[in-house]
Structures are given as structure tokens and as C-alpha cells.
Amino acid sequence: MKPLRTLGMMAILAAVAAGCGYTTRSALDPDFQTIHVKPFQNRSQEYDFQAPLTNAVTRKFLHDGRLRVVDEGRADLVLEGVILDYQLRGLVYDEDDNISQFILVVAAAARVIDQKTGEVVWQDEQLTGETSYYTLATGQRSDRLRGNAEVFLPSVRSFATEEENRAASEALEVLASRIFHQTIDPW
């Protein structure tokens, strides 16, 4: 019994020593030290999206620090993108068939280019940021901004209700996070 227990302990130690492949370091090439975030273009039917998305993406790089945000002429990488679509759909309906909760989706395309070679480091034509919110008629609050995002998010002001404005801001924040993570860890 004792040799079996010793063998089991050795197997556990070997597994721990080998690790699971997790690291806090970036998978990005270490030659890349700087990035420039170009202002996002907006091809959606809604306005007031490009500045909040550009600012959110830039803020994520500034906060993280693995890539310094610099002017385009000094950057190793250039991130550029376009907001493609804004969709608002009913998610939950009440007994009178009125929408009580919406799902909001902002779709975008983005890419990162190596300034030295002109090669595309990564490109994605189907990035989305999504969230949901309740209508005022439900009496439920939509204060569901994740983490400390509310501190950073100026509300988009192009919609009729504050709930939709705040939800659009959160969807842009989610989209910015996806773009940031795709850049830092391009799998």
C-alpha cells in the first residue's frame, strides 16, 4: 500500500511541476512593445459609437501596460477597426406580449498590423459586444455593469432611454475587452 501511495504522490508532483500551461505573460511576440489605436470607423445606423469604443480600447491598453500606446509613427503595431452593426431585439416578453427585456449587440471588425512588415497580426470580421437590459415598465433596474466599468463609461447619448444608452455603453465595453484580449493573446 505504501509504494502505491508514494507512486501516487510522485504522479501528483510531476503533474504540478509540469503545470497546465497557464501563464500571466502575453502570447504576443516580445518584439512588439507599442501600439497605436486608430479611431474606429462607424458603418452602423447609430451614431456616437466610434469615440466611446476607441477610448475604451485605448484605456484597456493603458491600464494593462504590456503594450504602450503611442503615436502611429512610433508604433510597432496599429489597431484599426470598424463598427458594423447595432442590433436591439426583444429577449423577454410580458403577458401582454410587450418586451420587458432587450438584448443589445454591437458588431465590429478589427485588425492589428505589424508596422515594420505590413503583415496582419490578427483580423476578425465578427467581433461582438452584447448585453441585456430591462425596460422601465418592468420596474427592474438594469444596473448590471460588470466590475468597475461604470466608473469609466460615459453613456452613449443617442437613444431615447437611459437604459438603452447605458446598455450600449456596456456592449461597447465588452467589445473593447474582446479586441484587447485578441491583441494581447492572439491564439
List keywords for this structure.
alpha/beta, Double Stranded RNA Binding Domain, six-stranded mixed β-sheet, globular
Helix-residue proportion: 25-40%
Write down the secondary-structure element order: HEEHEEEEHH
Strand portion, in percent? 25-35%
The profile of the biggest β sheet is:
6 strands, mixed
CATH 4th-level superfamily:
Lipoprotein like domain
Instruction: Count the E strands.
Output: 6
Radius of gyration: 22 Å
Low-confidence blocks of residues? 145-151
CATH topology: Double Stranded RNA Binding Domain
Indicate the structural class. Answer: alpha/beta
Count helical runs: 4
What CATH first level would be assigned? Answer: Alpha Beta
Mean residue pLDDT? 83
The number of domains is 1
Second-tier CATH architecture: 2-Layer Sandwich
Shape: globular
Taking the alpha carbons of the first and last residues, their distance comes to 45 Å
Detailed description of the structure:
There is one protein chain. The chain has 187 residues and is of the alpha/beta class. The chain has one domain: Double Stranded RNA Binding Domain (2-Layer Sandwich), CATH 3.30.160.150. It is built from 4 helices and 6 strands; from the N terminus they run H-E-E-H-E-E-E-E-H-H. Helix 2 packs across helix 4.
